[in-house]
Amino acid sequence: MDYLQAFAISAAGMSVERMRVETAATNLAHANTVQDPNGSGFQPLRVVARAGAASFPSLVHERLPEAIEVQVVPASGPVRRLHEPGHPLADAEGFVRYPGVDTATEMVTLTGALRSYEANVAALTTARALALKTLEIGRSA
């Protein structure tokens, strides 16, 4: 059994979840930044992780980076418009444009990423324990 492969799989999963946490944190940090009247400004981001084009037999014998493709892409969604007529960046109608960041969705993303990260840590810990037990067999013989 190749324990290094199990370690690599867990590490790849942890890396994806870390990217999700960082992206959600970035979105939350920019949730209340103002966009210019012409619409330029922060655009929310999403992490897209998908299985690579590799076949299952090749996944068993190759390293994991070819197995998972991860991208951070702009998220589509409506811009929030708040009526703040005294704001220096308000448009002619008195509306200020903010990025379309949904804080509830971002918090759910953070929680889900944390739980998935913990599951990958548990898998890594289990693989490590199995490897150590296997080494004990060699010592007792």
Task: Lay out the secondary structure.
Elements (H helix, E strand, L loop, with lengths): L2 H27 L15 E7 L4 H6 L6 E7 L5 E4 L11 E4 L4 H38 L1
Antiparallel strand pairs: 1-2, 3-4
Helix pairs in contact: 1-3
Protein name: Flagellar basal-body rod protein FlgC
GO biological process, one term: bacterial-type flagellum-dependent cell motility
Pfam families: Flg_bbr_C (PF06429)
Structure description:
Residues 93-135 form the Flagellar basal-body/hook protein C-terminal domain. Keywords: Bacterial flagellum, Cell projection, Cilium, Flagellum. One of its GO terms (biological process) is bacterial-type flagellum-dependent cell motility. Belongs to the flagella basal body rod proteins family. It is found in: Bacterial flagellum basal body. The protein has 141 residues and is α+β, with helices and mostly antiparallel strands. The protein has one domain. 50% of the residues lie in helices and 16% in strands. The chain is built from 3 helices and 4 strands. The protein has helices at residues 3-29, 56-61, 103-140, and strands spanning 45-51, 68-74, 80-83, 95-98. The strands form 2 sheets. Strands 1-2 form a two-stranded antiparallel ribbon. 10% of the residues are buried. The model has no long low-confidence stretch (mean pLDDT 87).
